[in-house]
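Run log, item B.
One chain of 450 residues. Sequence copied directly from the ordering sheet:
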Amino acid sequence: MTATPAATRRHVPQPYVHLTNPEWLKDATLYQLHLWHFTPEGTLRAAAEHLPRLADLGVSVVWLSPIHEVGAKNRKGERGSPYAIKDHRSLDPRLGTMDDLRDFVRRAHDLDLRVILDWVGNHTSWDAPLLEAHPEWYARDWKGDLRPPLWFDWDDVVSLDYSSEDLREYMAETMAYWVREADVDGYRCDAAGLIPLDFWETVREDLEAIKPVFMLGEWESRELHVRAFDATYASHWAETMFAIGSGRADVGALCVYYAWDQGFYPREAMLLKYVSNHDTNHEATEFERLGDLVGAAIVLSVVGSGIPMIYTGQEAGNPKRLAFFEADPVEWREHPHGELYRRLFRLKRETTALWNGAWGAPMLQVRNSAPSAVLSFVRRDAAGSVLAVLNLSREQQDVALDGALLPGTWTDAFSGEEVHLVDDGAQPPAARLTLPAGGYRVFAGPGEQG
């Protein structure tokens, strides 16, 4: 067969992602800090006192839930929704001053933490000054009236219209303002898919001209990763875990998720894995959704592919649904989940195979004798391996693992015990483990051979 001349080849693989992820994202872990719930004071100044604790926990990026003034018209609850923003260029005086925000960011940076803001660009409150000044920047219904976002129950907000070039310029400059003036390190962008992609791609260029930023989009879409976002949501992962927790699905559904995760998204994409956030908690806590599987879900969110996140209060084992439209402080206490996250985050930092995106290694399925109940996989690079075995059922499982991917000596990541997992006398070689209901084992092992 005659080779096609290089100059005329049309099927040369091209890179899919055309942005540069900040180096500090390689082993990043997120903490969603909801100021209304984080301290009794509910202020930036009070929250800043907790930054050393978050750094000790192993967090590296602090995501502040919206800091802007909340609208009063059509307000839900006593305090309203933090996502019904009156003025994107304001800072809610109940949370503090601009100097308080600058001080929060400076203290975080001194601890090698990054800070991102929650950006709600799709809509404003009904009493936003922007609506009075520029009603032409807002979307209309078939009658020509202002409208909330379509098909949602978000009747406390009114939709913006991104066909307006002037609106885009205003919003882009506002996002640049907070990066320039407060030195924040990026944004979590609410309902990112409801705003045109070309806006996000241009904004990313604008922000990168100021400093390297981290952009997290609340959406599930491969195209968001091309030029706009470093990370997007893994909402279907969370929904699958909740379905398993309620008995509506088993590990087979999780395998389908990971098939899409690894087959559909580029290696550079970082998908946010969480077992709770502000949207899920106010409907049901992780304990209500997952029961005895909470610990295993936490482990999987960190050692599996993706970028892991803690929501306010998880490290304290917060047992209650936090009020969404009110101040509702967490009762801080020591809890096993805090130590579990601390150990997992340390393992993530120290094991390059667990790093995020293209820095880390893919998950390799380790087949086992209880495929509907037990998830098992290895992540491996030249420096080392991690084997995770998780019983996502409510019965004890005596499970045999295919030993082909498990040669050598392994170390229990929690106890430090050294074990040789594979019974070399078995044909084919196999590893055998007993896991209680909701139990998990994580092992550190050798890197790739040769």
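Observations after the first pass:
- The radius of gyration is 23 Å.
- The chain has a mean pLDDT of 96.
Flagged for discussion on Thursday.
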